[in-house]
Specification:
CATH architecture of one domain in chain B: Orthogonal Bundle
Structural class of chain B: mainly alpha
Strand order of the largest sheet of chain A: 6-7-8-3-9-10
Distance between the termini of chain B: 33 Å
Strand content of chain A: 25-35%
Strand content of chain B: under 5%
Order of helices and strands of chain A: EEEHEEEHHHHEHEHEEHH
Shape of chain B: flat
Radius of gyration of chain B: 23 Å
Largest sheet of chain B: none
CATH superfamily of one domain in chain B: MetI-like
Oligomer: heterodimer
Structural class of chain A: alpha/beta
Order of helices and strands of chain B: HHHHHHHHHHHH
């Protein structure tokens, strides 16, 4: 796991219908230490997904730099694992094949891949579903596959783009608890994009609030771990931090 | 009511044991209607033979070896033509689907030539190649190609972009993405293209055999017309239907079930 830094990151694009230039992201600088969990929140259109897409290398950067472990990023690469809101699992591959897709691309042999599949499916509690196809799984199970598929490729940084936004509320809470457990076990460097304030506070070490393409404020979350909803839902500190972040987002 | 129910129950149990029965059952009223119309003698028997006579004729055609030989000829022509058509069409479709410039350059031409369907080519082909195998093969290959090209292009171009992004972020190269992501995603469309292509190709073949014919099911039917044996024509028609049913339900449908439907890409 490596650190990630954004240096004066900007994104401008031309809107051919409006005939104007739009500044989606302006001069965003952010340092994420190795093994840190940072959540990025903000209202719709604040540029949070655009930032993630630039870090992932999916869209060109208009200004500034993205550095992973001190090395500048050019285009998508296996050093940055991505978890998508739409899961983006390969429908024609079984769960095990999805999880070992990254290692397969690196040329890891079959026997070794079977071991990797076993390890990461156990981590996600999906050992029984190894040979099923994604469409045979529930949304929550599909996203568990999405998370361990990214992890199984040993990325330096894990990028998560509203990964739990399309599952039901109960499943979402379970997935959040599982993600904190996995994070505590493995300590990956994580950037987690969400519009859900409680989710951001629950998961992260630090919450970054965005507003109109700028960093409005950063809030440190020093809640003890391991975290679980049973304990935190009535916790005074959790409520206080959530309220603070919520006020910031609403003022954004 | 209870009698009808017990009959229905018997049918359901039998159909479960022999799936062929449920495929045949819908034809029972059709054959009964046919027999009834013949029995009314609205038309002279030589114009409209009954089911029983047709069955007799098909038995004698089978027995003499004419039907198996002609059927074999037609099937081989279709198989060769379809294989050649697919071998040309799938790579071409992949190329056009992946390359925007190739797409812009060829799409109008493809649509233009798609419109000049199979048998519209026959007059000029007969002038060029005469009454022979070349003409027939050309027509089948041509007919199979277009639906396969057009559907392959559609499948490639409708790939979900986030799947490609996911593969890139997992370290896949361009080539690996093509084989691991783009092509499997296009497979249901390619299969639809094959199904249409084979269906059109089969019809084009019969038309070509009628006009060019020296053997084959189309020739059998047209030759029977010359001899005035309507029952042989009807046998030919029935064979066409049965054969397509077999190709569709024994070959194409299982492929679809094992791929697109299993992956949840095609809803049934």
């Amino acid at each position: 796991m490596k650190n990630l830094s954004l240096e004066n990151l900007s994104k401008t694009y031309f809107d051919p219908y409006a005939g104007t230039t739009v500044n989606a992201v302006q001069d965003v600088s952010l340092n994420v230490a190795a093994g840190e969990f940072v959540a990025v929140v903000g209202p719709s259109g604040c540029g949070k997904t655009t930032i993630l897409n630039m870090i992932a290398g999916f869209v060109p950067i208009s200004g500034g730099r993205v550095l992973v472990g001190g090395k500048e990023v050019k285009g998508p690469g296996p050093d940055r694992g991505v978890v998508f809101q739409s899961f983006a699992l390969f429908p024609w591959k079984t769960v095990a094949e999805n999880v070992t897709f990254g290692p397969k691309m690196r040329g890891v042999g079959k026997a070794e891949r079977a071991k990797i599949a076993e390890e990461y499916l156990a981590l996600a509690g999906l050992s029984h579903a190894a040979d099923r196809y994604p469409n045979e799984l529930s949304g929550g199970m599909q996203q568990r596959v999405g998370v361990v598929r990214a992890l199984a490729n040993n990325p330096d940084v894990l990028l998560m783009d509203e990964p739990f936004a399309s599952v039901d509320a109960q499943t979402r809470m379970t997935l959040q608890e599982e993600l904190t457990r996995i994070w505590e076990e493995r300590r990956p460097t994580v950037i987690f994009i969400t519009h859900d304030v409680a989710e951001a506070v629950f998961l992260a070490n630090r919450v970054v609030v965005l507003s109109k393409g700028n960093v409005l404020e950063e809030v440190d979350i020093d809640l003890p771990r391991p975290r679980s909803w049973d304990r935190l839902v009535e916790d005074g500190d959790f409520k206080g931090l959530s309220n603070k972040v919520l006020q910031l987002v609403r003022s954004a | 009511m209870t009698y009808a129910q017990s009959l229905w129950g018997m049918y359901v149990r039998w159909a479960a044991a022999w799936p062929a029965l449920s495929a045949f059952a819908p034809f029972v009223p059709l054959i009964a209607l046919w027999g009834f119309v013949v029995w009314l003698e609205l038309f002279p028997r030589v114009f409209l033979p009954g089911p029983f006579e047709v069955l007799q004729t098909s038995w004698s055609l089978l027995y003499k070896g004419i039907l198996p030989a002609y059927l074999g000829d037609s099937m081989v022509r279709l198989a060769v033509g379809a294989a050649a058509g697919m071998a040309l069409a799938i790579p071409l479709g992949i190329f056009i689907g992946l390359n925007q410039r190739a797409h812009d350059a060829t799409w109008p031409v493809l649509l233009f030539f798609q419109a000049i369907g199979d048998i519209a080519w026959l007059p000029i082909l007969l002038v060029w190649f005469g009454f022979g195998l070349t003409t027939m093969t050309f027509v089948i290959v041509y007919t199979v190609m277009f639906p396969v090209i057009l559907n392959t292009v559609l499948g490639i171009r409708s790939a979900r972009p986030e799947l490609e992004r996911a593969a890139q972020s997992l370290g896949a190269s361009r080539t690996r993405i093509l084989f691991e992501v783009t092509l499997p995603g296009a497979l249901p469309n390619i299969i639809t293209g094959l199904r249409n292509g084979l269906g059109y190709g089969w019809r084009a073949l019969i038309a070509a055999e009628i006009i060019v014919g020296t053997s084959g099911i189309g020739f059998l039917m047209f030759d029977a017309r010359r001899a005035g044996s309507v029952d042989e024509i009807v046998v030919g028609m029935i064979v066409l239907g049965i054969l397509w049913y077999i190709v569709d339900s024994w070959i194409l449908a299982p492929i679809e079930r094992a791929t697109g439907e299993r992956w949840g890409l095609v809803t049934t």
